[in-house]
Amino acid sequence: MTVRQLRLVVHASDYEGALAFFRDALGMPQAEAYSGPGGAEVTILDAGRATLELCNDAQIDYIDEVEVGRRVAPHFRVALEVDDCATATEAAEQGGATLVAPPTRTPWESVNARFDAPAEVHLTLFEEPTA
After folding, report:
1. What is the pLDDT of residues 52-68, one digit of tens each?
2. β-strand 78-81 against 41-45: which pairing, if any?
3. Whole-model pTM?
Protein backbone atom coordinates (compact mmCIF):
# COMPACT_ATOMS: atom_id res chain seq x y z
CA MET A 1 0.00 0.00 0.00
CA THR A 2 1.20 3.51 -0.85
CA VAL A 3 -0.34 6.75 0.34
CA ARG A 4 -0.52 9.07 -2.66
CA GLN A 5 -1.89 12.26 -1.18
CA LEU A 6 -2.57 13.94 2.14
CA ARG A 7 -5.84 15.84 1.97
CA LEU A 8 -6.87 17.86 4.99
CA VAL A 9 -10.65 18.30 4.97
CA VAL A 10 -11.84 21.41 6.85
CA HIS A 11 -15.49 21.98 7.73
CA ALA A 12 -15.96 25.70 7.04
CA SER A 13 -19.37 26.97 8.16
CA ASP A 14 -18.41 30.29 6.55
CA TYR A 15 -17.40 28.64 3.27
CA GLU A 16 -17.06 31.87 1.28
CA GLY A 17 -14.98 33.48 4.04
CA ALA A 18 -12.66 30.47 4.19
CA LEU A 19 -12.26 30.53 0.39
CA ALA A 20 -11.51 34.25 0.46
CA PHE A 21 -8.82 33.63 3.07
CA PHE A 22 -7.05 30.50 1.86
CA ARG A 23 -7.49 30.94 -1.89
CA ASP A 24 -7.47 34.71 -2.26
CA ALA A 25 -5.51 36.13 0.70
CA LEU A 26 -2.93 33.33 0.94
CA GLY A 27 -2.89 32.59 -2.80
CA MET A 28 -3.52 28.84 -2.72
CA PRO A 29 -4.58 27.95 -6.30
CA GLN A 30 -7.90 26.23 -6.84
CA ALA A 31 -7.36 22.70 -8.15
CA GLU A 32 -10.96 21.47 -8.24
CA ALA A 33 -14.45 22.57 -7.18
CA TYR A 34 -17.72 20.69 -7.03
CA SER A 35 -21.35 21.43 -6.18
CA GLY A 36 -23.79 18.90 -4.84
CA PRO A 37 -27.40 18.61 -3.78
CA GLY A 38 -28.88 20.98 -1.22
CA GLY A 39 -26.25 23.68 -1.77
CA ALA A 40 -23.28 21.39 -1.01
CA GLU A 41 -19.97 22.96 -2.07
CA VAL A 42 -16.36 21.78 -1.94
CA THR A 43 -13.21 23.45 -3.25
CA ILE A 44 -9.85 21.68 -3.29
CA LEU A 45 -6.91 24.07 -3.04
CA ASP A 46 -3.37 23.21 -4.05
CA ALA A 47 -1.08 23.49 -1.05
CA GLY A 48 2.07 22.22 -2.74
CA ARG A 49 3.80 19.29 -1.07
CA ALA A 50 1.99 17.67 1.86
CA THR A 51 3.60 16.05 4.88
CA LEU A 52 2.25 14.65 8.13
CA GLU A 53 4.16 15.92 11.17
CA LEU A 54 3.59 13.81 14.28
CA CYS A 55 4.75 15.35 17.58
CA ASN A 56 4.63 14.17 21.16
CA ASP A 57 3.39 16.39 24.03
CA ALA A 58 6.87 17.70 24.89
CA GLN A 59 7.55 18.76 21.28
CA ILE A 60 4.18 20.55 21.00
CA ASP A 61 4.94 22.39 24.26
CA TYR A 62 8.42 23.32 22.96
CA ILE A 63 7.16 24.59 19.59
CA ASP A 64 4.46 26.71 21.23
CA GLU A 65 6.94 28.12 23.76
CA VAL A 66 9.40 29.12 20.98
CA GLU A 67 6.81 30.54 18.57
CA VAL A 68 4.22 32.02 20.93
CA GLY A 69 5.59 31.99 24.47
CA ARG A 70 2.85 29.75 25.85
CA ARG A 71 0.73 26.72 24.93
CA VAL A 72 -1.91 27.72 22.37
CA ALA A 73 -2.13 24.94 19.78
CA PRO A 74 -5.22 22.77 19.73
CA HIS A 75 -5.09 19.12 18.71
CA PHE A 76 -4.47 20.04 15.05
CA ARG A 77 -2.44 22.91 13.62
CA VAL A 78 -2.03 23.60 9.91
CA ALA A 79 1.43 24.81 8.85
CA LEU A 80 1.96 26.36 5.42
CA GLU A 81 5.40 27.15 4.01
CA VAL A 82 5.56 30.60 2.38
CA ASP A 83 8.30 32.51 0.57
CA ASP A 84 8.20 35.56 2.86
CA CYS A 85 6.66 35.21 6.32
CA ALA A 86 6.35 38.96 6.94
CA THR A 87 4.47 39.55 3.68
CA ALA A 88 2.30 36.47 4.22
CA THR A 89 1.53 37.66 7.76
CA GLU A 90 0.21 40.96 6.43
CA ALA A 91 -1.90 39.12 3.82
CA ALA A 92 -3.26 36.73 6.46
CA GLU A 93 -4.25 39.57 8.79
CA GLN A 94 -5.84 41.55 5.95
CA GLY A 95 -7.63 38.37 4.88
CA GLY A 96 -9.28 37.92 8.26
CA ALA A 97 -6.90 35.85 10.40
CA THR A 98 -6.22 36.88 13.99
CA LEU A 99 -2.51 37.15 14.77
CA VAL A 100 -1.50 35.01 17.75
CA ALA A 101 2.27 35.56 17.46
CA PRO A 102 4.23 37.67 14.95
CA PRO A 103 6.98 36.27 12.71
CA THR A 104 9.59 34.78 15.03
CA ARG A 105 12.97 33.25 14.18
CA THR A 106 13.07 29.75 15.67
CA PRO A 107 16.05 27.72 16.93
CA TRP A 108 15.69 25.64 13.76
CA GLU A 109 16.21 28.90 11.76
CA SER A 110 12.79 29.17 10.17
CA VAL A 111 10.63 32.26 10.62
CA ASN A 112 7.18 31.30 11.92
CA ALA A 113 3.99 33.28 12.61
CA ARG A 114 0.84 31.96 14.30
CA PHE A 115 -2.81 32.74 13.61
CA ASP A 116 -6.34 31.80 14.39
CA ALA A 117 -7.61 31.63 10.81
CA PRO A 118 -11.06 31.36 9.25
CA ALA A 119 -12.84 27.99 9.53
CA GLU A 120 -11.44 27.61 13.08
CA VAL A 121 -8.00 26.64 11.76
CA HIS A 122 -5.00 27.26 14.03
CA LEU A 123 -2.37 28.20 11.45
CA THR A 124 1.39 28.56 11.23
CA LEU A 125 2.93 30.36 8.28
CA PHE A 126 6.62 29.50 8.05
CA GLU A 127 9.55 30.61 5.93
CA GLU A 128 12.48 28.23 5.64
CA PRO A 129 16.01 29.65 5.69
CA THR A 130 17.60 30.23 2.32
CA ALA A 131 20.77 28.29 1.62
Report:
1. 899 999 999 999 999 99
2. unpaired
3. 0.90
